[in-house]
Write a structure and sequence with these properties.
7-stranded mixed beta sheet
């Protein structure tokens, strides 16, 4: 069954499951600063649900225990530490300068400031990143790298970030920024050559790791994947346990998989590997030699090696060389062995996508069915409308989960005041899939359900008008929680109820106009209010008064971030339900009939900015502890 569209709560994870798919070969897409190497493949995989309308990913916060091992959380910590610099960062300070003055401005800025340049648009983008500016900065990278001391004392990291930002912005708007040609190619090669030839480039230290990791990603940003395969091989063969105490050194090693992954769409790299297949052996040997990382927070290093080896099966000229190496990894691992299952699944998935006709050779025929049967043996019916499929839940845990969701029905209908399912909605039953941990989710959910797993769970609505369609929420036990909890259970269950009783059509239909404020804000509102929990993050955020209500009406998955999506979505929906219930009733009337333009007119014209001042006042009271009565039924 085609699962169709859906929603995901993205929480940064130690490992990303890549969901490969068929589609046009992408132009080199430099990763934005917030994309971490372990998440990158999932974020950029062509045809991946994370990048298509098949399933839309948004972001929420990680539990504290996981955040300590995640690049996004670390980036947030760095940003918080440099928040004053970021707040004072003025794009005009960069656009007004050229030549040496521009280089000095970059070096004098904090990394948090340079990081903001990934989001510039329009005339600022051209002023910042036109080729002449990029050549100047690439030449500065070369000059600075030639005397590199193994740390950021020369502000080289800011220079690399600026170049990465330029490639990223130019990719998104080549006409606005202008084309990049031979001059920049030569200049960037000079910078990369100087850095990787420097005597301190491979120092195993945290001080070196960040610049090294960013420079490895720059290889891909500049589409120099083939030229620097020796860098990839050196980092993979050089890795040992001494790297593990340095977060950024681990990141640097993992960044090599970005170069390899994206290299599948760089013909020069495929030609280079065909001429010298030693990269294939390096990938195989890394995966085979580091099975001890499976089950740890470094597991992604091993599984990514296996995946990237297997991904080369898509190329006719490489298949004969890859096949025995992938087969050997599968022969020495097992789906039934927790100590090696993650590697087996990763390689098996690549063979299933790129060499399926040889599944007998690999022992991977009927892969999805085999993995599901082995990993999800528990089946429990809560009601005619709800069932749970799980990895290890006890009878008590199953009953608790059922009771939590079924009890939410009455609360939801009391708030939504609906008259039953919307027209043409046949999603009469929901399947909740619960893996035993976030790591199990990352290991198995991708191959079974074809989803990205660098998140905190995913709701797949499918086509609600199709008879027999089965919507599905895929989740996991929150292993860090003191008490049993399926992570995001009530938020995602609200998505199911909201889609069935409030939003006409499927996910793609729901997104025809900006509805994210409602979709995510309402899910947060119901989840917290039903459980009678304070949304402490949102209440703290209210004090900042960052957004007028009228601005939140325009939230889309493309223009938002974690805070705007969840905390501000919650605040906006709670305010409207409590202060303007008649407007909410009118809005939902439009949503239920699929009259998106009428709903849009209500928000942007009828309401417009009329409530902005009152909303600001309410935010002040809420941040002081008086948010009103949440459960407005």
């Amino acid at each position: 069954m085609c699962l169709g569209a859906g929603y995901a709560l993205v929480t940064p994870a130690a490992e990303a499951t890549v969901v490969p798919g068929e589609g046009p070969a992408p132009k080199s897409l430099p990763a934005p600063r917030q994309s971490t190497p372990d998440a990158l493949a999932a974020a950029l995989a062509p045809g991946d649900p994370a990048t298509t309308a098949e399933a839309k990913a948004d972001a929420t916060l990680l539990p504290p225990q996981e955040a300590t091992t995640d690049a996004i959380a670390r980036k947030a910590a760095r940003t918080a530490a440099g928040s004053e610099a970021a707040a004072e960062c003025n794009v005009g300070d960069f656009t007004s300068k050229t030549g040496a003055a521009l280089v000095e401005q970059i070096k004098a800025s904090e990394t948090a400031c340079v990081n903001t340049l990934f989001s510039v648009t329009g005339g600022d983008a051209r002023a910042l990143f036109q080729e002449s500016q990029m050549v100047t900065v690439a030449d500065a990278y070369r000059d600075t790298a030639s005397a590199y001391q193994g740390d950021n004392s020369s502000s080289i990291t800011q220079i690399v970030l600026y170049l990465r930002a330029g490639y990223y912005v130019q990719y998104g708007d080549p006409d606005g920024v202008g084309e990049y040609g031979p001059a920049l190619k030569t200049a960037v090669q000079g910078g990369l050559d100087a850095f990787f030839d420097s005597s301190r480039a491979y120092d195993v230290t945290e001080a070196n790791g960040e610049t090294l990791s960013e420079s490895v990603i720059l290889i891909d940003s500049a589409m120099e994947n083939a030229r620097y395969l020796d860098v990839v091989k050196k980092l993979l063969t050089g890795y040992d346990s001494s790297y593990d105490e340095f977060y950024w050194m681990v990141n640097a090693v993992n960044s090599t998989y970005t170069v390899v992954f994206r290299g599948n769409w760089v013909p020069e790299l495929i030609d280079a590997v065909a001429g010298d297949p030693s990269l294939l052996t390096v990938l195989h040997d890394f995966a085979a030699g580091h099975k001890d990382l499976i089950g740890t927070d470094k597991q992604f290093l091993t599984t990514n090696a296996g995946r990237e080896l297997g991904r080369f099966l898509q190329h006719d000229e490489l298949r004969e060389a890859v096949r025995p190496l992938a087969g050997e990894l599968l022969d020495t691992t097992s789906l039934d062995d927790p100590a090696t299952a993650a590697l087996w699944v990763g390689v098996a998935e690549m063979t299933d996508v790129y060499d399926k006709e040889n599944c007998d050779f690999f022992g991977t025929c009927d892969l999805q069915e085999r993995v599901r049967a082995a990993v999800l043996p528990v089946e429990h019916t809560c009601a005619d409308t709800l069932e749970i499929v799980a990895q290890k839940l006890t009878a008590e845990e199953l009953e608790q989960s059922c009771a939590s969701m079924l009890g939410q029905d009455e609360f939801f209908h009391g708030v939504a005041r609906d008259n039953g399912p919307v027209a043409d909605d046949r999603n009469t039953k929901l399947e909740v899939v619960a893996f035993d941990s976030s790591l199990d989710y990352q290991t198995y959910a991708g191959v079974i359900f074809g989803i990205d797993t660098n998140n905190g769970g995913m709701y797949l609505e499918g086509d609600p008008a199709q008879e027999g369609n089965l919507p599905r929420f895929i989740a996991y036990r929150a292993e860090w929680a003191e008490d049993f909890e399926i992570w995001n259970l009530n938020h995602e269950y609200t998505h199911y109820l909201d889609g069935r009783f409030n939003m006409y059509g499927d996910f793609e239909e729901n997104m025809r106009t900006p509805t994210v404020m409602w979709v995510e804000g309402f899910a947060e509102y119901v989840s917290y209010s039903y459980r009678d929990l304070p949304n402490e993050d949102a209440i703290a955020e209210a004090a900042n008064k960052t957004y007028p209500l009228s601005t939140l009406f325009d939230t889309t998955y493309e223009n938002t971030d974690t805070t705007r999506t969840y905390q501000w979505g919650y605040l906006a929906v709670r305010y409207l339900i409590q202060s303007h219930p008649d407007d909410v009733a009118t809005l939902l009337g439009h949503y239920r009939t699929g009259d998106w333009e009428a709903a849009r007119t209500l928000l942007t014209s009828t309401i417009g900015n009329r409530y902005d001042a009152d909303f600001a006042g309410w935010l002040g009271r809420c941040s002081a502890g008086d948010c009103g009565t949440a459960a407005a039924q």
